[in-house]
C-alpha cells in the first residue's frame, strides 16, 4: 500500500490542471492519497489559487475560441484579411496575442480552402495513388481470401484507410477535397473487384484454395 510520501512524490509531477482533475474526482481515493493531494496543492499556493488559475485559463480559451469563430464567420462572408486584423479586438488578451490568433486562424482557413481546390496535382495524385492502392489492396485482399478460403469484408475498413492515406500522400490533400473522396471510393471499389476476381480465379496468380 502506498504511503502519503509515495503519493506526494507522484502528485508533485502533476500539472495544476491534473491536480485539480484529481481533486474533482476524489471519491474512491485512499485517505493517504487525499492527504498527499492536499499537501501538494498547499505547496502550490492553495486550492483557491489553483481554481482561480483554472478559471482564468478557461476564460482565455473561451476568448480564443470566440475570436477564431468571429474570424471564420467574417472570412466566410468575404471580408478581407486586412479589415479582420484591424477590427478584431479583445478585452482579455493583449493586442499582440490577438493578432497572433488572427494570423493563425486566417492561415488555417486559407489552408483549408487550398485543400478543397481541385488542381492538376489533385487529379494526377489521385489517379496514381488510386492505381497503386488498388493493386496493393486488391492483390493483398485477394491472396488472403484465397489462403483463408473466404472473403472477410470487415477488411473493407482497412482498405478504405490504406487507400485514403496512399492517395493523401500523393495529392497532399485530405478528405475535405471532393476529388480525393471520389478517388478513394472508386479505388476501394476496384480493390474489392480485383480481390473477388483473384478469389474466384486464384489460378491467375498461380494460387489455389486451401
Task: Explain what this protein looks like in three dimensions.
The chain is 75% helix and 0% strand. It is mainly α and 210 residues long. The chain has three domains: 4-45; 59-114; 120-205, no CATH class. The protein starts with a helix and ends in a 10-residue tail after the last helix.
**From the alpha-carbon coordinates, what is the Rg to the nearest angstrom?**
28 Å
Shape: flat
Mean pLDDT: 87
What is the total domain count? 3
The profile of the biggest β sheet is:
none
Give helix and strand order, one letter per element, not per position: HHHHHHHHH
Range of helix content: over 70%
Poorly predicted runs are: none
- How many H/I helices? 9
Structural class: mainly alpha
Report the strand count: 0
Q: Tell me the span between the first and last alpha carbons.
A: 55 Å
Strand percent estimate: under 5%
